[in-house]
Design brief:
Layout: E1 2-9, E2 19-26, E3 31-35, H1 42-49, E4 57-62, E5 65-66, H2 72-78, E6 79-83, H3 94-98, H4 100-104, H5 109-122, H6 127-130, H7 140-152, E7 158-162, H8 170-186, E8 190-194, H9 198-204, E9 207-212, E10 215-220, H10 222-227, H11 232-238, H12 242-247, E11 267-268, H13 274-283, E12 288-292, E13 298-303, H14 304-314
Parallel strand pairs: 3-8, 3-9, 6-7, 7-8, 11-12
Antiparallel strand pairs: 1-2, 1-4, 4-5, 9-10, 12-13
Helix pairs in contact: 5-7
The structure holds adenosine-5'-triphosphate.
Length: 315
């Protein structure tokens, strides 16, 4: 677990707290997205976890150990770090970039080589094609994949990701978000990410921490935050479409009733979101939709009324 205990950060010469008495517990194996207006202290908070910044007061603990007692270089080898512009070494091949931390840790050539292949595969790049290339010979999305692979190289328990998809075009971004989320779950990392993108926070975060002026306004699951914003600021930050965002997190399967006798009309899949079901219902002005599996078996029905009830139940 990563634990921030009443952490405050004042930058020299600045009259205000960049981070102000922050308490935050991040469970192992979960992803927490830090979000809030520009200058609210997200990046500073994240950089205090790998000691790129030192707290002015308070403590940061990793698995119970106060990190102020750990050598920053040792600590950073235990913590993967992914940043917006990737930060690959431009004159080094992809394989050398990915091998940065293993080399620092003194791994032998064979072990490092195996790890490079394994990681490039994991992030969807063909090692045979990519190993000898230079960063400028890759697309922005491919470079981000390499940056991610490099951060995972020594299998760190924690990954810090600062606007990891900020410089990527919207279509590639959505694809990378989906892929990275699956990978992070598969390798079961504890992740802290900073983002400006609420949809990204909702998609990637098991929990979202909403900050303002260095303070934590709300810390909860995306569903809970969308259902019950802590105050008017959070409510307006989430936007007027927060009910729709919430429907996109709930699967049809969890709300459907048994299949009807004589169904006809539009269908959705059990794993579709209620947002998709709503869209289908509105598009064809229906009372409800049949729920079918990919191989065509009818397994349920979702009525318009049930859908609206689902929204108001926790909304
Ligand atoms: N190195 C620094 N020296 C002085 N002040 C700083 C420094 N880094 C950040 N700050 C200030 O601390 C506050 C928090 O900055 P931080 O970068 O943590 O916010 P942020 O939420 O990540 O912002 P953004 O979304 O714009 O990246 C801001 O007021 C910023 O101006």
């Amino acid at each position: 677990m990563i634990k921030l205990e009443h952490v405050t950060k004042n930058y020299e010469g600045s009259g205000r707290h960049a981070v102000d008495g922050l308490d935050l517990d991040i469970e192992n194996g979960t992803t927490v997205a830090l979000i809030g207006p520009s200058g609210c202290g997200k990046t500073t908070t994240m950089r205090m976890i790998n000691r790129l910044e030192q707290p002015s007061a308070g403590r940061v603990l990793v698995n119970g150990e106060d990190i102020s007692g750990i050598d920053p270089r040792d600590l950073r080898r235990r913590i993967g770090y992914v940043i917006q512009q990737v930060g690959l070494f431009p004159h080094m091949t992809i394989e050398r970039n990915v091998a940065t931390v293993p080399r620092l840790l003194g791994w032998d050539k064979a072990r490092t080589g195996r790890r490079i292949d394994e990681l490039l595969d994991l992030v969807g790049l063909d090692p045979a094609v990519m190993r000898k290339r230079l960063p400028h010979e890759l697309s922005g999305g491919q470079r981000q994949r390499v940056g991610f692979a490099r951060a995972l190289a020594a299998d760190p328990e924690i990954m810090l990701m600062d606007e990891p998809f900020g410089a990527i075009d919207p279509i590639t971004r959505v694809k990378l978000q989906d892929e990275f989320r699956l990978i992070l779950k598969k390798v079961s990392k504890t992740v802290v990410m900073v983002t400006h993108d609420l949809d990204e926070a909702i998609k990637m975060g098991d929990r979202i921490a909403i900050m303002r002026d260095g303070r934590l306004l709300q810390y909860d699951t995306p569903q809970a935050i969308l259902a019950k914003p802590a105050d008017d600021f959070v409510r307006s930050f989430l936007g007027k479409d927060r009910a729709i965002k919430r429907l996109s997190l709930i699967e049809v399967e969890s709300m459907m009733s048994p299949a009807r006798e004589n169904p006809k009309g539009a269908t959705v899949y059990p794993g579709d979101s209620l947002h998709i079901a709503l869209s289908t219902i509105i598009a064809d002005d229906l009372e409800g939709v049949d729920v079918v599996t990919v191989d065509g078996h009818r397994v349920g029905y979702l009525s318009r009324d049930a859908l609206f009830a689902a929204h108001t139940a926790a909304g």
